[in-house]
Structures are given as C-alpha cells and as structure tokens.
Structure prediction request, 279 residues.
Amino acid sequence: MLSLRPITEMIGTEVSGIDLAGPISARDFDRMYAAWLDTTILLFRRQSITPQQQIDFSRRFGELLVYTRSENALPGHPEVLVLSNLARDGKPMGSPASGRYWHTDGHYLKCPPAASLLYGAEVPPSGGDTWFANMQAAYEALAAETKVRIDGRQIIISRVKSRPYNYPNKPAVTPEERAAWPDMPQPLVRTHPKTGRKALYVGGNVPWNVVGMAETESDALITDLQAFATQPRFVYVHRWQAGDASCGTTAVRCTAQVACGSCRSATLTSGSTRRRMPT
Prediction:
C-alpha cells in the first residue's frame, strides 16, 4: 500500500509501498505527483530497476529531454545519463565529476527540464551525499522588499562564466565551446505552471548577471540569494543507499542540488512537463 511520509518540515516526501519496476495505478501516481508538486522531492528506497524501467517511470512526468554529452549516456539508452567514477576497460563509465557544486539541471537551456530522476545503482560506503534545497520555500521566506526587488528580473545563465567556478582544473573555454554555449536569459523568480508558487532561480555558486543591474550590485544580490536559499532549514542531505531513487523538481527550479565526492555509479533521466503521460 502506498505510503507518503514527509522527510523534513521544508522539503521532500519519502514514498514507500511502491515498486518502480511494476505497474503503478493512476490513483497512486496522482498521489505521488501531488506530493512532488508540494514538497519538490520524492524519495524511493530499496528499488531495483532496469534502465528501461527508469525511462518508463520518468515518462509518467512528461516528455524526456536528452541534452547532455552523448559519451556519458548509457549505451542503447540515450535518455539515461551515467554519473560514475568507475571505469571499464580503462575507460570512464560516465561523467565522473558532475554536480559537485550547487546547480539546477539544464538551466542553460531555453526550456529547462521540469524534473530529474536519479537512481543509485552502486554507492560507496561513505560519501557521495546529495544536498537538495527547496527554492520555493526560500523565496517564500524572503523579506517583502527583496521580493519586490527581484520579481520580474532576468538573469543570464552563462556556461562560459561558470567554467572557472564549477571546473577550476579544466582548461579555459575554447572558441568552439563559446560558439556552442550561448548565454541564456532566465527569470530570477520562476512561477510554477501548475501550482502558481514562486521559486528562486539562482542555483549554483556563480554570480549570474542580473539584466539591467550594475555588475557589483548584481554579484552581491545573487551571492546573497544563493547563500540564503542554501541555509540548513531549506536543505535535505540525502545519504545514498544502493537502490535509492530520487525525483526532484528542477525545470521550474523548485530545487537546487549539490553532490559530494565518492560517487560510484548512478543514472539520471530528465523530463519536461509539457505533457503528463497517461498510465
């Protein structure tokens, strides 16, 4: 029987009594979907799913997006991104260093994904935690004058600007990468299309530029908002067990996330909410 339990007062719902590998009734999915909208994260323990089953369940939330580097995709399943520091035949099995900083999946896309489903296939005995921050709760806790200051503003998400912050050991951005990575304007505050709730859209540790604002003022504002949104009261730290699956709202940026080191092997699918798949 489906059971839903709050993880913290501010963020997340742990789901039990559901097998992601099997059929899920429309009624049970509707209850999970409502909890996902309300608390921004769903956590499933002790799952055993194939890549195709992960894809099938992800499609219940919407169309899947394939937007990451193809060499990190699971062979035969381009919808699945592999996050792993393991190697096979001397070659990396996936992306070994993704997400080791606060971020929001796909925020550099014109239409970012609405959700990401992360499945822990193999986890280390320690480390590899994922931190989730509820950006809706953070926005709602802002002072009224701050909300007035930021509502209606846009920020520029720049993969070029983010490189030294997120990957300081990588070489400088090449001219080819600059051409392939256009800056993307995004709302500083996003409104959820289904619930109407507002969320901060400042995931990351990069002082994104606020359109129409002086750089010094913009840097200070974004840095302050990022620090505010990642206070412990808005954050859930997930310590992985093999078979865990987490589904976080990302496209409207209701959650931001950061992963610590010692990852072994996990898979990720991301989707939009342009349509909701029937059962």
